[in-house]
Every structure is written in structure tokens, then in C-alpha cells.
# Entry
Amino acid sequence: MLKHLFKLIWNKKKENFLLISEILISFMVIFAVFTLLVYNYQNYKQPAGFDAEDVWAVDLGVMNISKHKDSASVVHENLRNVMKDLPQVKSISFSNGNVPFADNYISMGLTYKKKEIYPDVYSVEDGYKDVLRLTLVSGRWFSPEDNGREKSTIILNEEAKQQLFGSGNAIGKTITQYDDKMKVIGVVQNIKGQSDFKVATAGAYQRIDTGRIRGMSQMLVRLMPGMDAAFEGKMYKLIASTIKSTNLEIKHLVDMKAEKNKETTIPMIIFFIVAGFLIINVALGIFGVLWYNINKRRAEIGLRRAIGATATSVSMQLLGEALVIATFSLIIGSFFAVQFPLLKVFDLPASVYLQAQFLAILFIYLLVVICALYPGKQAASIYPAVALHEE
Amino acid sequence: MIQLKNIEKVYRTDTVETQALNNINLRVAKGEFLSIMGPSGCGKSTLLNIMGLLDAPSKGDILIDAQQTLSLNDRKLANFRNSKIGFIFQSYHLINDLQVVDNVELPLLYRNSSAKERRMLATEALEKVGLSNRIHHFPTQLSGGQKQRVAIARAIVGRPEIILADEPTGNLDSAMGNEIMNILLELNRVEGTTIVMVTHDPNMAQRTHRLLRLFDGSQVQ
# Structure
């Protein structure tokens, strides 16, 4: 019967051309939707690598202090002491502007045996790991023993370590930035610092130069859970009076994350709505064409009933024909879809395209089955004696 | 072979009731060639449809091979039609998108037969009607007589015991009509197939074993 259906559809390919094209175009759109969905979902599923809950980022703004190194250190130390005195504060760390979910991006070239990478650079203090609850994979985090070393120390994330050292050990190796030599002392888990939906990129952590005001423009504070706006106001006043900053700003990392997530979710929702309308159009198209086919083929349906087809087999035949038409479209569509991983379009992993292709095929078959069920049922109810008298 | 008892058929709409058949009693013996005649609208095709289990009577019984058929469900009725009855229609009812041989194979698709067996039986049936050289043609490439011969091949491919023909020569000129009639007579004589044929042509009816005349849904002869 399947061969018969293929033959029937193949011989009517001109009549079915429009429907085949319509399903093909919808397959490509659905494939794009699922590619986006699978890619974002795969990224979403990856561990964040840190805990943004109850962490506030304080942008210290322009501080009214001398440019003298020691003077800057005193201001920061004062602030640290004031903050530590608050019982609601669990830990703090100064950092450069490259805090998670910020719009800033700081990078530098790191080289190891002629291999060069450009990771995100986070200038941090020893307490940074505790504030963000980073997970150490190997080696150690910064500590006072790094003070006054001849070579500065650096910590890589897994992605940066993979790019520079592959599966080899990175701990103890020396990497360079221009003429500066840095010893790798640890590897931490990747962090998704751009949004929940963005893939973690290579990252490197440097110990902050406590004398550089610009390098310490942010203060990350981990608080007790449940701190409210009243506490935020109190903390704001305290910091402002301590450092005499003119444009101090406090942001919650979870809010910053939500804002960043919107950059992915809003275009995705718009795309889904557009695709949804297209799918509705396609569904109506398939439904209409099948309905028209049945009315055009009443005599054939009557004949089939007369020569031995049951009502169910007529219904199944029409469903089968719709699935065969869909199969023709999907074969052509799959040919185009497999070009994406083969040609590395958009540089996404092949698994994303393959999963999206599989889901799109399933979706199209499901759509066709839903659209063909009712017309198929109508065809089955055609009375053979009546249908045979129609031309 | 076929027995109709007190068959009545009434078509009802909201406002009109039409009596298509009225108290028809008929026995068709095995190997008999029966023709049915009557004016247009007298119920000939309705009677044939009821005999072929394509339509159910409003009243009465239909027995084929002594088996009561009205109580059969859709699946059993379909099997019954597939294995026991072959249909020939005035307008051929061929599927234009399928080659001649595929059209002939159609009834076998609803049986458990292999593709090889289907092709063999279809080719054999086409040989019987003299169309073995047209098996890969499409119906649109054939003349009316050739189309009707394809329809006959389709009717006999499953080796049914009964053939029901609804004005098989109605769309053909007399030469073609005779050719088709000869094939049916040959089938009846050689294979012993029971044939019931609706016709308007008295010359064709004369060549059959028996004639049944209908008028306003009732038997008059």
C-alpha cells in the first residue's frame, strides 16, 4: 500500500507541487525555530558556574579621592571595614567593571606555546570566589601567599584552559601577555556571565591591583538572604558617606541577569509569534487542500469502497497520502538542513542542528496528521453508492 | 447465488419520500447472466448497488451464497465485496493518475497478496481483455472501449464469482459495445462467472440468459 501511495503522489506531483512547497517552507521555518530553541535550551541547561542570588553589584562611580595610590587604598580599606561591620554582609570583593551581566567587556591576549586566546578578564580580590561561590576545578584560588611573587598569578576557567592546554594539565604552567609572565595556579568552572542563554566563553581571573582606582570600580557584596529596599537605602547612604562618590549605583545581580535574559527571550518570543502565524496558515492550507482533494476524489473514494476498502482504510489512505507528501517535502528540506552543520553556518554545534532537524520533522508530521484526520474521517463517511454516481 | 427477498428502498429528505424499489424478489443462479432493463429513474442502479452491498435496503434481505449480508459489519462487507464481487461502471471509474496495470491491481491491494502476485494477476487479467500491450499507459491515453476493458480487467482480477455491471456499454458506440459484451459473455461462458448487467440496450439484453424489467421501482417481468 505504501508503494501504491508513493506512486499515486509521484504521478500527481504537479498537482501536489504547491502543497509540497508549502510544507517545505514551513519545515525550514520550524527548523530555524527549533535550532534557536535547542541552542538556547542547551545553553540554559549548562550550570551557571556561580550563584547570583543575594549578590549586589555596587558601582562606586566617581570617587572624590586623591590619585595617589596609598590614598586610594585607604578609601577602599575604609569602605571594606565599614561594609564588614554590617551584620547583613556575608562577604565582599572589589572588582574591575567586568562583573557578571554588566555591559562592560574587558579582554586581553594570553599566549602559551604560540597559541593565543582572548578571554574575558576579571580583575578580582581573594574574596571574589566566596562572593560568587565559584567552583574550583583544580589548583587553588588566590591567597595572601601570592603577595610579592616575582611572577603574577592567574586563574583560568575551563574553556580558557581547554583552548590553551587541551586536555593537558594547566596548573603551574606559565603563560604570557606580551612580556608579562603569569603562572596558572587554578582552574574554575565556566561561568555564564552574559545571560542564562549565552554560552560560557573563555575567562581569566587576575588578582586586582589594589592601588588602581579604575581597576576597583565595582564592589560585589554577598548578603544574607531577603535583604529589602530599606536595607539597600541604608547601605547606599553608608557607602556614599564613606567614599563621597557622586554617582553611586547599586544593582542586584539577579535583576541584571533578568535584563540580560530578556535580550534573548524577547526576540525569541517575537520570532515564535511570527512562526506561529505561519504554522496556522500552513495548517489551514494543508487542511484546505486535503478537504478539496476529498471532494474532488469522491468517485475514486466510492470506487475504492466498492472494491474492498473499509471506511477506516479510506481514512488511513488519505492520511497516508498527506504523510507521503510531507515526506517528499521533508526529504528536500532535510537536504538543505544538513548543509547547516556541514558548512558550519552560524558556528553552532552540529548536535543543535541535528536535534532541531529531528524535532522539526516530528512537528511537521504531527501537524500533517492533525490536519488530515478530520478530512480523512469525512472521506470515510462518504457513501460508496452515492460517490460512484459522481464524476 | 444471489437472493433478494422483499427488497424495498425509500429515499427520505425532510419533505419528500421517494420509493426507489418496491417489494423486489429475485434469485440469480450461479453462472447465470441476468440483464436488468427499465426507463431512467426506475431503480435499476439502486437495485444493483443493493445487490453489490454498496447500499442497504430500507427493508428486506439479501443473501449471497446463502449468507445473510445485512448483519455484516463494515470490515466484513468490504471483504465480501473484495472477494466475491467485481464492479463495472458506465463511466469506468479508472484513476487517471495510475497506469493501467496499477488500476487493475487496485482490488488486490485490499488483500494479502504480494506485489509480484498482484502484478502477475493484473497482467493475466489484461491479457484476457486484450490489453496486455497497454499496461504502462495511463487511462487518458486510451479510447472509451479500452477504458472499459481495463475496468473489466479490474473487475475480474480478483476472480470474483459475481460481476455487477452498470450500463457497461452505455458510453460506447455499438462496435465497442459489442466488443465489451463479447468479453462479458466469454467470462460467463468460460469462467462461469455470474453476471448481472443493467442496460438500456435491448440488443445487449437479448444476448443474456434472462431479463428483468423494472418500472417505478417494481418488477414487471
The helical segments of chain B are 44-51, 74-84, 100-109, 115-128, 144-156, 174-191, 202-206. Chain B has one domain: 2-219. Chain B touches chain A at residues 45-46, 49, 52, 54-55, 74-75, 78-79, 81-83, 87, 89, 91, 93, 95, 97-98, 102, 106-107, 109-111, 115, 154, 158 (CB under 8 Å). The two ends of chain B are 20 Å apart (CA to CA).
